[in-house]
Amino acid sequence: MKHQYFGDIHDYRKYGLLRALQSTSPGGLLVAWMLTPDDGGQDGRSRSYLRQPERWRSYDPELYDGLVSLLESAAKPAVSLMERSRLLPNTRYYSALVPDRREDRAAWGRDLLDAARDIEWVFLDPDNGTEVPSKPIGRRGSSKYVAWQEVQGLFNAGCSLLIYQHFRREPRDAFARRLVSEMGRRTRAPVTLAFHTPHVLFLLAAQDRHAWHCEQLVFKVSERWKGQLEPVVLANKPLQPTAFGGG
After folding, report:
1. What is the rounded distance in angstroms from the CA atom of residue 105 to the CA atom of residue 138?
2. How many structural domains compose the chain?
3. Which of 19, 44, 208, 246 is a plausible cystine mate for 227, CB 3.0–4.6 Å?
4. Is residue 244 part of a domain?
5. What per-residue confidence (pLDDT) applies to 233?
6. Residue closest to 154 by CA, chosen among 29, 25, 18, 35
7. For the segment 140-192, what is each residue's pLDDT rounded down to a tens digit?
8. Helix (H) / strand (E) containing 192
9. Residue 241 domain flag
């Protein structure tokens, strides 16, 4: 996550999913921003939805109005705006910048585990998603990915997980199913699930105690965010995956 992208259309869907999760699953949430430095890229092109309330506000009016207000009152976008708001209740935040150096990354991961103590759900928000072979921990640019060992450590500590994941250059449906399968293999979670948007995935691995809440989440998101957030796979549950679509 980079500060410069706060409040864009991906954020709207992301926070909408987290708010739906909070409404269906009790317990604390930790948002691990996985912050990396801003890069000076184009950061305003995906906020035009905030000037189109007739199209976008109905998905989550409180969230929509809140993001409009936060950005109008801020000198520049920053995740601290969300941290100071009440849009994600019962939430803690882990805001340390993600380092590239292996030793520093190991310390960052230990602090993440400490921050997740007594937490039910952890949301991991890397720039790109789960690790890839070309960017192992310690290599320049590895800070843009969450390492599988970090995912496993959090799940083994008793947390259920939600992870931000960009699509890669392969057929999206196959990619989503492959990542969900890998999530299940890596964590041995009894419930694995993904939500897709037109541009990103959200990967979910749930502890057994959260299985029923995940089912409620699927139905709530399918009803409220139709066309914007769609369930892909829910392992061990009688739900049919949906086709990719949305606008």
Report:
1. 8
2. 1
3. 246
4. no
5. 55
6. 29
7. 999 999 999 999 999 999 999 999 999 888 888 889 889 999 999 999 999 99
8. strand 191-196
9. no
